[in-house]
Write a structure and sequence with these properties.
The structure is a homotrimer.
Chain A: H1 13-19, E1 27-30, E2 42-43, E3 53-56, E4 73-76, H2 78-91, E5 99-103, H3 106-122, E6 128-129, E7 134-135, E8 140-141, E9 146-147, E10 152-153, E11 158-159, E12 164-165, E13 170-171, E14 176-177, E15 182-183, E16 188-189, E17 193-195, E18 200-201, E19 206-209, E20 214-216, E21 225-227, E22 234-236, E23 241-242, E24 247-249, E25 256-258, E26 263-264, E27 269-270, E28 275-276, E29 281-282, E30 287-288, E31 293-294, E32 299-300, E33 305-306, E34 311-312, E35 316-318, E36 323-324, E37 332-335, E38 341-342, H4 343-353, H5 356-369
Parallel strand pairs in A: 2-3, 3-4, 4-5, 6-9, 7-10, 8-11, 9-12, 10-13, 11-14, 12-15, 13-16, 14-17, 15-18, 16-19, 17-22, 18-23, 19-24, 22-25, 23-26, 24-27, 25-28, 26-29, 27-30, 28-31, 29-32, 30-33, 31-34, 32-35, 33-36, 35-37
Antiparallel strand pairs in A: 1-5, 20-21
Chain lengths: 370, 370, 370
């Protein structure tokens, strides 16, 4: 990837780590004897990083890439550090030139350093309300907010201090966003939606559209439906990130609830009156039908679907593509995806699927006749 | 949920029912002896409603909740009403304090009352065109329309009387929306799209994007595609609701057609030249491939997919997550979802799936050898 | 469908074909003796076209429709042309009245003629920047661009000459679009996105939202996640079309890459660091998880899903609804969709699925006891 910072603005490795939030991490820098702390202008993989980039090794199976990397510095575990020393000793070759950052949790330290770069490359914020934005007179804007071009903030809406709205966001009447949030371009909050602090909402997110509530109404014709107005709202906790084009519907009577620390990827559908527990992470293209409750610390793989009115307990892990059609009251991993195959093989096996009941009968008959 | 109306604006139960459209319903209010008709400020479930809220009982299995509800009034069936009387008599306890609304169809009456509240809480409309909207000189706007901030109405477009466009809607050249429609923020109609009366279109809906029409064009390179322009449009009937981020593509030559009374949930994909019959309801995340025809009064469960060039007759009900890959010419319910299991169990069973043809042979061999 | 052009602007068949790009095609017009080249005002199917419309026959199984069509002209293969002659001769009836366009590739010629009509009906472009658009002073706009109402072009962004932006598009800081592109209403490019020439991006497309990168961070609480900033970008080649509400996430460190000539349908999700090879076409509702590489000239059917960190070689064809959960290193067609059935049949067979391991054991026991 391109370098993130100009040489003039880039810190030394030691300065970078001093500026990074390393709460909860143990780390130390090991420079090659006589070497200076390298200037770090960006981050890269072991395979692609150059001499002004910091890289990291988290998975032991990539240990072999250390020998060939051009990275200026590498974050690695104490184990990997020791293994590298032993290897150098055994092979009698000079140690790799990169500076080592030995850390008990390289992946987390990498995340923290990346967060520093992410802030650094954004540069100074330009607080204020763009003149093309339409802000209701009684909307309440915190200090240091940024309201982008063509935003619409309706009556009584509240935007917490330090929160940034990209171009074209719409905040419905009476809705509220907490402090230090980041709404990318074209996020829509219907009225009656409450979002906590430090939210990250991506483009195309829609919070609070009507749940799919219909009652059969024979007075409108055979098979016709009348709308059940969705009078609840949406409540989203703190530290929630929601991916592009994901939709969370408002509740029928009570609210749809997204807990603290929940992470939703792109193009997810959360139906009315769903409840998602704290720190649950859901990958892209998942659909959760109405009134289902997902516990805390769950992970749901991409394109999984959850039927309505179910309960999933805490610490449930659903594999991608799996349809969960019944309650899951025991923590663990659950899977239900049809195995793919070469098309001709699939045809042969799929044909048998539709005779499985019969096949079982035939086995039973054979067993009886023994 | 929070109360919907201030005490000052809230009606008595009797006034509320008089103001509600109860066409086709039989109902009567039963107050406890000497009690006044309670003031109703909102709606709630039996479990959550308070004394100024109206609740309802539709499913007999929740009958037991009647005893403990704090609701000021409850809609219930004549059967439930009688059962409650008997229960009170047998147990010798005082009757529950709530007013009863005895009705032959509680769910429909609840829907109608909710519709009244939904209108009441919205308050008076503020007709007119927002000054930031861009409206072509030859666009035709009906009376009492509301065109929100940053809307764009292109040349020759027509908006029916009473129709409301939320912020940021785009109505393409020559497209038309009927009367009394409600387009939430950021709905896009391409040119050549016609929508009937009383439409409800949610945020992020896109009607009339190009269908996925490609022809192999070897002159552009091996395996290259050229675009087949999509020259048809989209025709949507009356009383249609379309959920957030749902897309309906325009036809290649003829139109894509959505019938009257069709209800589409969020994140649905309707491909070019699909036809959906009247009063069919489709849950979220469904994909319907090109040129497939779905009959009237069908229901399609969430995350189902329909292959292209199929016909589904009337009154077909597809379970969630099911892939429909062949015509369905007989009404009824169809399902095809792989059953999920604990991951280890799944691994064991999925491995056998890929040997099913072989397994059948082995059974046959055993049968022959008997 | 309605006629595309007024009679006054419509060309004769010969003029139309002369104006159409027929590179790489062999074709000739056969008029009925004495007939003039018909005026062509639009295109239609054999069943619906009228006398001022051009139709086409590509699939021999519809040959029978030639006898009854009202089309003014029909594109057909030399084989179909000969077969029609023989049929006329055998039946002794007069030849159909339509003009014939005999061509070695009718579908491609139809695509090219449709492209001509598509340009013709759009009429003259109205170059320029709409006064409501917000364009950064240092953005670079090519000549003959159209920037629609309420667009936002951020600092340093570049728009190639001849490119059109519909209403409400947002082009992030430093992003670039090549020449002759068409962005429909409400397309969003985050910063750091590069799109090649002749792109067609449909409404609701989001390129460059953050990939779903999370690291467990126990310092934030049990099971809590911290964000891994997504510092890479998105690179999209030339001649790419992307359907409505499709999202392509930016890379974590390196870019997410969409090759030349790639065609993506609606509501597709392309996760971070995915790479899609040239001329691959992907139908709607597909999800591709992070770091997966798809080869050249692949086709992926609707609602398929690809797990992360996989490799699919060139010329792989995945059937709709299939979950690809392992590398595919051999070209060919792959399928894995559970066959649907009448609900009661499904229940019976699905129950057996969960006993397949057991069933296999029972067969083994029977085999042993023989």
């Amino acid at each position: 990837m391109p370098l993130l910072l100009d040489a003039a603005r880039a810190p030394s490795l030691n300065a970078l780590l001093a500026a990074t939030d390393t709460t909860g991490l143990e780390w130390q820098v090991r420079l090659t004897a006589g070497a200076e702390s390298p200037v770090i202008r960006g981050l890269g993989t072991l395979a692609s990083a150059g001499r002004h980039e910091l890289s990291f090794l988290t998975n032991p199976k990539y240990h072999g890439q250390l020998a060939g990397t051009h990275a200026g510095a590498v974050i690695l575990t104490p184990d990997a550090d020791r293994a590298l020393d032993q290897q150098v000793e055994q092979e009698g070759k000079p140690a790799p030139a990169f500076a080592r950052v030995v850390c008990n949790n390289p992946y987390l330290l990498y995340a923290r350093v990346a967060q520093w770069f992410d802030r650094a490359r954004r540069g100074g914020a330009d607080y204020g309300v763009h003149p093309t934005a339409v802000v209701a007179p009684d909307a309440v804007l915190g200090d240091k907010v940024i309201i982008g071009p063509h935003c619409v903030i309706e009556a009584g809406a509240r935007i917490g201090s330090g929160t940034v709205l990209g171009p074209g966001c719409v905040i419905g009447a009476g809705s509220a966003i907490g402090a230090d949030g980041l709404l990318h371009a074209r996020v829509t909050l219907y009225p009656g939606v409450t979002v906590g602090a430090r939210a990250i909402l991506h483009s195309g997110v829609v919070l609070g559209a009507d749940g799919f509530g219909l009652a059969p109404d024979p007075t409108l014709g055979a098979g016709a439906w009348t709308k059940i107005p969705q009078l609840g709202g949406v409540t989203v906790g703190d530290d929630v990130e929601i991916g592009a084009n994901t939709t969370v519907d408002r509740g029928a009577l009570d609210d749809t609830v997204i807990g603290n620390g929940v992470k939703l990827d792109n193009q997810i559908m959360v139906a009315h009156n769903v409840r998602i527990g704290d720190n649950t992470a859901i990958a892209a293209c998942v659909g959760i039908a109405g009134s289902t409750t997902v516990g805390q610390r769950c992970t749901i793989g991409g394109a999984a679907m959850l039927s309505g009115h179910l309960v999933l307990t805490d610490d449930v892990h659903v594999s991608g593509g799996t349809a969960i059609t019944a309650n899951v009251m025991k923590s663990g991993r659950y899977t239900g995806v049809y195995p793919f195959a070469d098309h001709a093989d699939w045809q042969r096996n799929a044909a048998v699927i539709q005779q499985l009941g019969l096949l079982r009968k035939r086995i039973r008959a054979l067993e009886r006749s023994e």
